[in-house]
Amino acid sequence: MRPERAFHRLTSVATISRSADSRRRLRGFEEKALLCDLWAFRKGFCVFCVFCGLKNKNFACSAGSVGSAKNAPGVHRAGEGRRQVAASVGETGAASPARLTGGRWRAYRGVMRPVDGLHLQWRWVPAPGFLLLFVILGSLARAELEADTPAPGPSWKASWIWARDSDVHGYNEAMVARREFRLGAFTRATLRITADSRYRLWINDAWVNDGPCRSWPEHYQYDVLDVTPWLREGRNEIRVLARYFGVGDFHRIPQQAGLLAQLDVEGADGRIVTLGTDGSWEAARLPALLSRTPKVSIQMEPCEWYDARLAEPLRFRRARVLFPAGAGPWRDLRPRDVALLTRRPFPFKRVLHTRLVRAEGWNFCVPAARLVNPGVIEANHHASCGFGMATVLEVEKPGPVRIQQEGMKLALNGEPVRGEVHLPAGRHLLLGFSRNLFGHDKEKAVRFLEPQGFRLVNPLDPRQRNPWVFIRLPEYAVATNDLLWVQFRDSDPRLGGLAREYQQVTDRWLQEVRDADRLRELLGGRCEQLPSERMFVEDAFWQFTQRREVGEAAGLVEHAEALLHDNAEVTTVRPGPAGDVELLLDLGEQNCGYWTFDLWAEAGVTVDLAAVEYLAPDGRIQFPWGNRNVLRYVTREGRNQYVSLKRRSGRYVFLTLRNQKGPVRIRHVGLVESTYPVAYRGWFRCSDARLNEIWDISARTLKLCMEDTFTDCPLYEQTHWVGDARNEALLAYGVFGAHDLARRCIRLTAESLERFPIAGCQTPSSWDVLIPAWSFLWGISTWDYYWETGDRDWLRQVYPAVIRNLEGAARFVDDRDLFSAPFWNFFDWVNLDQGHRTVLHNTLLLIGAIDAARREAEVLEDTERQAWLRALRERLVRGVRRLWNEERGAYADAIRDDGSISPVHSQHTSFLALLYDAVPPEHRAAALRNLTNPPPDMVQVGSPFAALYLYEALEKYGLSDRIVAEIYRHYLPMLEAGATTVWESFPSGTTGGGRFPTRSHCHAWSSAPVYFLNRLVLGIASTAPGATAVEISPRLYDLTWAEGRTATVRGPVTVSWRREGQTLRIDYRVPEGVRATFKPNAWHAGLKLIVNGQAWEGPNP
């Protein structure tokens, strides 16, 4: 079967209601009792139509046009009546949007695509017998994914609640809920609590926890807290600040606002007293947390802007009861299955400077995605942001105007404008449109820097308070998933054609509309007068990136270093006459957690805390573009104590005081470090201090990328990228153990198979996209975990999902015996020829995933699957070998979409083919040369992520000495640059944009030294699942001694060795029950070996 045919059957269009009652997103794979299940459709037919023969009136398939929006009843909970899903099938593998009445395109999610060229409409009307069929088949589908499911908790008596004066479907809503109660003598108290989207819990004014952990809405999780230490006999109060983000990100899929909590207290007499969220709780909207802010980034939630002047008094009322605990959009409630994060005070180390800065202007930041597609929860490229905006500049006298834009294309009087322009007196029309129809920049901005001599006026109605008109373009409003990757958009005539048409039309309007009269004539029917509060959000980040230093502030800051210490001394900052006072603070190393401060000020002072990872030696700031890494706080009169609601990362923090009229007294500014609670069970030391430091910064990076999942980085994304997690779990096992974290990551990704044909690439997430390499690395990670732990029971649970992932992948194997799909076919940040459907590294990694599954099948004695896995592997290997280029002595990167063989050859195809045994013996020497001595025109590894697989291949073929040489070559420049964590890319700078050595300066996919230094220099390697047997074979390199420890599930394995002249003393200890074997290697040749105090009598090479 051609892969496009499989793709047709695995994607569809579904309408989503934006009614007030149900504006949450429609997931194609949720609520199996009401939607056709992917489990059934991946077999290539509509199982329900087979059973009903298209005769069952309760489930009718009919060809025809898609129904209008007003006919779509929205997304209902199971048992609440009917749901309508509209599916539209195009001529390509794209998930094609369905055009609805009024030119509006509705959001859709992938389910299936049954027949080419048809618009199908399904309508479900409940029928008892047929509902039973749905339930049975849905249960079978779920049974395939029962991978390490957390045990259910005690029964719930609580209900989901929210504040009555807060919109449960609103954007960035926040509320405070509280409950007072009295307790007699008690012995233990447990609180179960969760929220959509986040909560902070206090008990008797003590900060207890933030949560919940990330999870899919179909398998929602709650935290279980022993709150005994915070309660007391007599009066108690529980208080919860809950936030609903109301927008998609890479960490969750928000459904609607909701808080659920239940306190179970065991009295001294043994009886259990239960107190759960219900109508007896009080709740109030929290206006102090400004809702009108942009998202931090596409990956994250809305920005944090807290105005303490609005914090009190809150208008508490009886809470609104939403659903019983087991109802609502959050299903299958499960207890948290990973350790709670730490909270450890971490002080700043120094104040680097005090300066006066200015950042003045008018900033107009438009929440484009929410205005174009209101109510849609997504984080996709293909959720359009096409709109326009216009204003008139009334210039009093000739002069310069500095205009900036973010994601916009602008014209002034019909002429393109960017940067500074000189305008004569008079009226000038500024017209702008989103630069691109699709993309991940969901907010757009137009900015005037240091405006003087002009004002803005609404071009169609000067009486309006908002000087801008919003130009709506309904024919370009579309929201769909990214299963069809952006590089293949043009293959869909609707998506690709729409994007091209948008550019042509808006470019023409920018030229033709030269004044307000022409705007009214040509676009007047599209113009809307929106209140400023709806059209714009408040963005604090631009004042950081556009800051201008205007002088020193040393004379305005007294006792600057007092704020570093958490004591009674204070730093006093007086206002500057020429600008805002800025203090640059240095943590000494990159870290992650909550910003905290304690200060006294008059009301209305703006306190900005903005963090970066890197300052160049020449003083340039590497701003974290794409991430608004700033906290804004507006003071109330008197004392202000605050702990940020968001975990942030950075090393250097710019503390800026704005709108200051009197002195501000700062007692303390600090960080509350918050990570997964690591224990350094493994360590490494040797005679080369540089290797020690490389190991240390690699381990620290791992720690900072461990939350409730492994994450890519603590600043930019904090996302559980599945490919990153495979690397990080493998590297973390020997340092921290953290088996619960790895197990949880595997489970979350297994659950993504309820949504996608192959495992998701970031889980859970509102971004619907697939990276096949990550899907296959997930499969490999399941064997990693079993090898590490030896847990057969766990393996038996996850194995069905492993097979399901491979079955889904097999449907995309084409008639050339290669994996081919229009997904995001990424593997490394380098110039691989990976922008095609058929990219060879996907097939090679699929072979690796099959090998992992074959080993698992052997452990579980699944003889039935072994034959299928072996046949699939052999087929793929044949396809790979056909792409060998005898002249180049390498594999081609891809088969291009025009059918030609790619002329690009990379190291990646060679080392993956070697690693996964796809290279025939006659080509092995040439492939190995590509690893050790690649020709100048060969694409080489660009990131430490991909280098891990190069290193694995080198070790497999006895070339491990080159691994340590590569570690020196790539990591020493990081040390020389003062790095305290390891970088996303090598110092060659494949992600740094040319001006800086890398983008992310803390990326745990790069922490391979902690794995290979222990494995090679100490020589510790497990040789059996669960470390029941280990091999000790240290390599000396140019070192004189080394010592360290590698954690295993059975306990630490410790090795130390020292070279004394011609004698090598090696000592090792292993846990009880572990069989250890010492194996000499070539580094030991000619040396007298003393092993554990005894002369070695065995062979010595």
Query: How many β-strand stretches?
Result: 52
Q: What is the alpha-carbon Rg in Å?
A: 30 Å
The CATH architecture assignment of the largest domain turns out to be Alpha/alpha barrel
How far apart are the termini?
53 Å
Number of helices: 21
Provide the CATH top-level class of the largest domain.
Mainly Alpha
Strand content: 25-35%
Globular, elongated, flat, extended or rod-shaped: what is the shape? globular
> And the CATH topology of the largest domain?
Glycosyltransferase
Number of domains: 6
Helix content: 10-25%
- Backbone structural class: alpha+beta
Rounded mean pLDDT score: 88
Low-pLDDT residue spans:
1-147
Main sheet attributes: strand count, strand direction, barrel closure: 12 strands, mixed
Description of the molecule:
- The N terminus is likely disordered.
- The two termini are 53 Å apart.
- The protein is α+β, with helices and mostly antiparallel strands.
- Strands 14, 18, 19, 31, 32, 33, 34, 35, 36, 37, 38 and 39 form a twelve-stranded mixed sheet that branches. Strands 21, 23, 24, 26, 28, 29 and 30 form a seven-stranded antiparallel sheet that branches.
- A hairpin with a 2-residue loop joins strand 48 and strand 49.
- It contains 21 helices and 52 strands.
- It has six domains: 141 residues, no CATH class; 179 residues, Sandwich (Jelly Rolls), CATH 2.60.120.260; 132 residues, Galactose-binding domain-like (Jelly Rolls); 176 residues, Jelly Rolls, CATH 2.60.120.260; 335 residues, Glycosyltransferase (Alpha/alpha barrel), CATH 1.50.10; 84 residues, Maltose phosphorylase, domain 3, CATH 2.60.420.10.
- Helices cover 23% and strands 27% of the residues.
- Helix 11 runs antiparallel to helix 12 and helix 12 runs antiparallel to helix 13.
